[in-house]
């Protein structure tokens, strides 16, 4: 009689703090035992010579998000979740987008319906593009109570951005309700000024996208968001930090004691602005916002990851096909950079790139890799102790890695519905062989074996990590309108 549904035997288990030899016994989708020499399982996986890691938690993914025609997202929940699992990721947080035309309640309900096809577990950030009193005071409290404990705002992008005055109201709502506010931080008016000037000067190539939003545009806005977070004593996460100057702003805010967390993404660790300058419209494959920067910025980001200034690495998965009427080239080969949809596919590549460029090349240790790809994001977004680590009682979300396998990245390996990967041809060392979600294989030996609909919604309750500090610049609390 087997003692476990599954035993993973003889592997090297890594968490954010330890690396040790152990078998893992799985029962009912959870880790039931963690010790050497466990009894038999109904199924056994031999993991000698392999790393047994917590499945990745990717907390910034655009999955099946409706877009303005003609462009469209290249993935469904079925394909995006397959892609995530191909790269060792077992949980995603994606976006339900409220707009002037749609209530936040409806946006969440519609996205929940789409997510029923997910093969891996998921939660939502609620994007607020029209944060009216009705949304903030009536809809949001119920949505947060239902487990949607994070909000996203854009300070740039026509049609999505909100003003600083609106951002302050969202921050106040996040503080009152216990929801973490995440911010796309770039100075909208500076970008608009630059863009108008570049177009007028005939500088319209993909590489000029990076000229339209240089680092100062991001650095200023990161500083402003930190100041707003300080003024309202509200924790925030800054999304997709792209280089040294923004990382320095974040470090300054953290040194002041603020609860400011920040992520970066693989595109800022392995691509540069030069990639946008590939022949023809090829550079469109690398066009994302913020723009990729320089090699010196990449090294500054690694240093910020090592020192904990940046706490997590996400994909910002936002796939658009290159070809076709809804693709990056929808407006033709001569399209100006302003007509090229922003965003890169990255769900599958995130962990292999991080492992290879980070662990295999000696930039970070294995525990840091686990921390920034799984444990920290799970904690930051209230998914722990169920997600983000390997521990008795946690979900058996596990990626079994061959740390020595060399793989040349191809689009086919990504298991997404996109027609390209910006990482085509890159060689990585280290690859996930099996990805398990709650003990059930989703990808095994590169083949998709997990069923659509296996994924579960992860409601998130209140959690201490994002509790405000209770520190304001004056003895007045402007959110609750009380004296301290
Ligand atoms: N930048 C974003 O902010 N979102 C999706 C794609 C991108 O490049
Ligand atoms: Zn963004
Ligand atoms: Zn994004």
UniProtKB/TrEMBL annotation:
**What CDD domains would the database entry show?**
D-HYD
State the UniProt keywords alphabetically: Hydrolase, Metal-binding, Phosphoprotein
Query: Residue limits of the Amidohydrolase-related domain?
Result: 51-441
User: What does the record say about PTM?
Assistant: Carbamylation allows a single lysine to coordinate two divalent metal cations.
Locate the N6-carboxylysine modifications and list their residues. 152
An example Gene Ontology CC term for this record: cytosol
- The answer to whether keyword NAD applies is no
Q: Which cofactor does it need?
A: Zn(2+)
Q: Example GO molecular function term?
A: hydrolase activity, acting on carbon-nitrogen (but not peptide) bonds, in cyclic amides
Top-rank taxon, per record: Bacteria
Note the Pfam families from the entry.
Answer: Amidohydro_1
Q: Does the keyword Transmembrane apply?
A: no
The entry's family comment says: Belongs to the metallo-dependent hydrolases superfamily. Hydantoinase/dihydropyrimidinase family.
Which purpose does this protein serve, as stated in its record? Catalyzes the stereospecific hydrolysis of the cyclic amide bond of D-hydantoin derivatives.
Task: From the Swiss-Prot or TrEMBL record, give the protein name.
Answer: D-hydantoinase
Q: What is the lineage of its organism?
A: Bacteria, Pseudomonadati, Pseudomonadota, Alphaproteobacteria, Acetobacterales
Give me the gene this protein comes from: hydA
